[in-house]
Design goal:
The complex is a heterodimer. By secondary structure, chain A is α/β, with parallel strands linked by helices. In chain A, about 40% of the residues lie in helices and about 20% in strands. Chain A contains seven helices and six strands. Chain A has a six-stranded mixed sheet, sandwiched between helices. Chain A starts with a strand and ends with a helix. In chain B, about 40% of the residues lie in helices and about 20% in strands. Chain B is built from 13 helices and 14 strands. In chain B, the strands form three sheets. A seven-stranded mixed sheet of chain B has the order 3-2-4-5-7-6-12, with helices on both faces. In chain B, helix 1 (about 10-20) packs across helix 2, helix 1 runs parallel beside helix 7 and helix 3 packs parallel to helix 5 (about 85-95). Classes of the chains: A alpha/beta, B alpha/beta. The interface of A and B includes residues 41 and 42 of A.
Chain lengths: ~190, ~350
């Protein structure tokens, strides 16, 4: 089951949490995996919270709805508040530390605190915070290769938006590097 | 992998209908199926088709009637409250023996209910909804690929029988994305001839599309013809899927999204060596009664658990098949609540304990 992933991406509307999940799902498909992507579609509103669930597996996927995710990527405080308790024991929590502003309560999780929004602002566009967080998630899980995510981006973006790919690539790899540094720090 | 795409159910069902030869869509928006009209409004003009956002669901289904009478393969889609509004039109389509393709991405009811997923329109789909003695071909896909495959089949069968076919999905199936493969675009020239279509008599006999038979004898004769079609469907159109039933003592019966969740619920139990299996109806009408009866007749199955996102609708058809052969237990969630694999697993465990 090590290569099975049940991930919830959560944040507020406009943070690109749906795209994050779709890029992961698309990349998993390109790598020949089984995959489902399921958005929350409640009575949403601008500025409200949004989330999506991605399941990646080698065998056919049953439920696309996940109550106990193996990983949660929390892009803001309400997302951490809502999903921290749901993560399976020893599961992964990726936190956008720029906006979350608190440490997780649970001690039994692998936690990656990444200043995703801060890094994105350094890069000149806070809309790529999702790519920083996705990079961090990939560094911790190896769910798919970052190259597959970039390949997905090429297919998902219309040609006149391909000028955004270098920025997204930069953000993705900054997330990968930050996470690697934090993971190695934790090991040392 | 080049021909595999990642797609939402709502978009995939539209593309599949177009690939199968549908060029006419009439609808009115409602969540959680809005991506169907949205997709069709963009895609149909690309293939020379017609998209109309009607002023209401009632108008949309009657536009389907008009297009079908002129020989077109037409489609409409909605979600629960909108499908209720279409029922009169559906009955007229059946009465006039017109093919049509209808999609219901069910949301929680009754009334306006909620936009979250449900399966509480099963009765409406398989036992009527509109007036008169009639049936629809009703398909309950459990994945986006199956949604595509069954859409192509449904359009074909609707044409063949001159009877509407309906895909019964739910909000999850509509909103979810999965990798999917499409069949090639059908050459419209290969669609069956429709010598009955009201496209002008061209010197031939008068053509009339109507569901009015004022004389009782004539109307009964018409009904006998319809019933003969339904008997034929029952002989040839039943579809179902079985998982781990070969040695199962407890069989879970579920369709659509719920069947997937049941699969996840059962996987760990199988790994623990429990003799549990899953029977999944794919056609909801005709209901796959014989194959379920065959399974229960073996004497090995000691209990059946039916799981639905409803207060218990398909369970009635399972009870008809099972009679008093085996006890039938029901577990349902309603109003847009989706059962978790964990809570279904707990229901199965409890039943397994009772059987010991």
């Amino acid at each position: 089951m090590a290569n099975r992933h049940e991930v919830i991406f959560a944040g507020f509307g406009g943070q690109g949490v749906m795209s994050m999940g779709q890029l992961l799902a698309y990349a998993a498909m390109l790598e020949g995996r089984q995959v489902t992507w399921m958005p929350s579609y409640g009575p949403e509103q601008r500025g409200g919270t949004a989330n999506c669930t991605v399941v990646i597996a080698s065998e056919p996927i049953g439920s696309p709805v996940v109550g106990k995710p193996s990983a949660v990527v929390a892009m803001n405080r309400p997302s951490l508040d809502r999903f921290e308790e749901a993560v399976i024991p020893s599961g992964l929590l990726v936190i956008n530390s720029t906006l979350v502003g608190r440490q997780p309560r649970r001690q039994d999780l692998r936690v990656l605190s990444v200043p995703a929004t801060g890094v994105a602002q350094e890069l000149g566009n806070d809309r790529v915070a999702n790519m920083v967080a996705l990079g961090a998630f990939l560094a911790a899980t190896a769910a798919v290769r970052p190259e597959s995510v970039l390949e997905s981006l090429k297919k998902a973006l219309p040609p006149h938006r391909h000028n955004l790919i270098p920025l997204n690539r930069e953000a993705l790899y900054r997330g990968v590097e930050l996470a690697k540094a934090e993971l190695e720090g934790a090991r040392a | 992998m080049e021909d595999v795409v990642l797609m939402k159910g709502n978009e995939a069902v539209g593309e599949a209908a177009i690939r199968a030869g549908c060029r006419f869509f009439f609808g009115y928006p409602i969540t959680p199926q809005n991506e169907i009209p949205e997709y069709m409004s963009r895609r149909l003009p690309e293939v020379g088709g017609v998209y109309i956002q009607a002023e209401s669901e009632v108008a949309a289904i009657n536009m389907v009637y008009g297009a079908a009478a002129a020989g077109a393969l037409a489609m409409t889609s909605s979600s629960s409250p909108g499908i209720s509004l279409k029922q009169e039109g559906i009955s007229y389509l059946v009465g006039s023996e017109l093919p049509a393709f209808i999609v219901n991405m069910i949301r929680g009811g009754p009334g306006l209910g909620t936009i979250q997923p449900a399966q509480s329109d099963y009765f409406q789909a398989v036992k009527g909804g509109g007036h008169g003695d009639y049936r629809l071909l009703v398909y309950g896909p459990a994945s986006i690929q199956e949604l595509v495959d069954l859409t192509v089949l449904a359009l074909d069968r609707a044409n063949h029988y001159r009877n509407p076919a309906l895909v019964l999905g739910d909000g999850i199936l509509g909103q979810m994305m999965e990798p999917v493969r499409f069949p090639p675009m059908r050459d419209l020239g290969t669609l069956p001839e429709k010598p009955w279509a009201t496209t002008g008599r061209r010197g031939g006999p008068k053509r009339l599309i109507n569901s009015l038979y004022l004389q009782a004898e004539k109307c009964e004769e018409h009904n006998r013809r319809l019933q003969a079609k339904y008997r034929e469907m029952q002989r040839t159109e039943k579809r179902w899927d079985c998982l781990w039933v070969e040695n199962a003592e407890l069989v879970v019966v579920a369709y659509g999204t719920t069947a997937r969740i049941c699969r996840t619920a059962l996987e760990p139990l199988r790994a623990e060596g429990e003799a549990v299996g899953l029977f999944r109806p794919i056609t909801l009408w005709p209901f796959p009664d014989d194959p379920l009866a065959d399974l229960l007749k073996t004497g090995r199955v000691r209990a059946v658990l039916v799981v639905e996102m409803s207060a218990g609708q398909m369970v009635e058809d399972v009870r008809l098949v099972a009679g008093d052969r085996v006890p039938i237990r029901f577990y349902g969630r309603t109003g847009g609540a989706v059962p978790s694999p964990e809570e279904i697993r707990e229901q199965v465990r409890e039943l397994v304990r009772e059987l010991r």
